[in-house]
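ok trying again, last paste got cut off:
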Amino acid sequence: MKILVIVGMPASGKNIARLYAESRGIPYFATGDLVRAEVKSRGSQGPAQTAAVSTELRGEDGMGVTRMALTAALESGKPLVFLEGMRSWPEIELIRRKAEVVVIAFVAPRKTRFRRVMMRGRDDDSAAAFDGRDLREIEYGASMPVALADEYILNTGTVEEALVDLDRIVRKCAP
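nice, full thing came through this time. structure:
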């Protein structure tokens, strides 16, 4: 099995990988989906509640929600899957112990990401929470997988341009 791990700061364009995977029938597992589902099941809402649930699911070693997503990916039995939401290098190493991994980082300037956050309207997105969320991601260790990624997509253009860049990477890496 080959796992394409999608990393990047909030609103860097990671969801483009989801669009790509879904359009091609490739399984896509995101830790954020697991967190949002848990927040919803508890009847919670808002950035503070989402942050608390995210921290709780990550657990003491920070890898609990990654284990959940990895288990689902491995159980899919597919030769190629996407995993998204890893925020530390130990999470990448955990996945590498189970499968062949290519880390793909989506990057975009801070102002671009802020504008996207304001446009997408998720429950856990707000102007007031933007800086705190970035800092929390960095505290989780998100800068390391981005810095050490195998491939990069500078996502400052259109979705279509990013999809072309991602397709080039997937074709190069696919089993």
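cool. Strands lie at 2-7, 28-30, 80-84, 100-107, 151-154. Residues 2-30+69-173 form a domain with the Rossmann fold fold (CATH 3.40.50.300).
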